[in-house]
Amino acid sequence: MNEKKAQDAEYPTVLLTAEQRQELTSFPEEMPSRVLKDHFTISAEDLAFIQRHRGSHNRLGIAIQLGTLRFLGRGLTDIPFVPRQVIDHVATQLEINPKAFRQYGERVSTFYEHLERIRIAYKYQDYVWPAPLHLARHLLPSAFHSDEALPLIKNALTYMQRRKILAPGITTTERLVQRVLLLARRMVNQRLTAPLTNSQREALDSLLETNEEMDVSPLAWLRTPPPKPSNPGMTHLFERVNFLRSLKLPGLPENVDANRTSWKLSGKPLPPESRSSLVATAPATKSRRSQQLKESNLLLSDTICTGR
Prior knowledge:
- This protein has 308 residues and is mostly helical.
- The chain has three domains: 3-15 and 128-193; 31-121, no CATH class; 198-281, no CATH class.
- It has 15 helices and no strands.
- Helix 5 (56-72) packs across helix 6 (84-94), helix 9 (149-162) crosses helix 10 and helix 10 (170-193) packs across helix 15.
- Residues 263-295 have low confidence and may be disordered.
């Protein structure tokens, strides 16, 4: 296994918990009135579209499906439960008995047929190429800033919702975000290691070797939190600062965000290509995100297409 594959193997393949997936793809238990007003209020245009459907249960159902699409970015085919507040709110506007919703979707195909009619009438797009590439390009700058998956997935869902892209299954979004994060990690590591000389690389590698005098590796010693404010504590802090300075590492490159590298000083083992991340202790400057996008467009397209 080469270094890039070894590094990728350490990246989590599951980004969300089951609870997080449910939260991102379901109605909340209590629907805020603002959400009902913003997403489930029927306009004159909506009413004209809804009234073209026969049967009160179909009119109520497609109206709720339209609001669900606006709120969650997906249709009722993926939603196991619709709150009573939503049903009552929509039924009142249509002057339909809320109980009619029980009949909606007795044929599963109705959900899909109505979702397709909404897609055509309201100009929604399916999640097909090049939508994944455009989404990945949108997410990449944020991935350079932070490797937190949940905010990035929420960002992806908001992006698709605002651009009227029918959201795919949540695991599909997860996989795309994982690929974007992997690409960002590779590029950050490449930018961190590029300016290092051979002697600097060797010095960083030596930080992982156990020191007989300290009985721990220099890296473990660097990670040790200082004691409470005191003279010994300040001495310990200055010793670590002087040790890092003795490595004579370059400063953080301008096209690398300090927030994207600081996590690597945690208690986790460093991936093979991430050893140079210790330069995150050097002063940082603002990242040049437009430059990052120009450099990564071809890599991004290849990553999304091939999954490598």
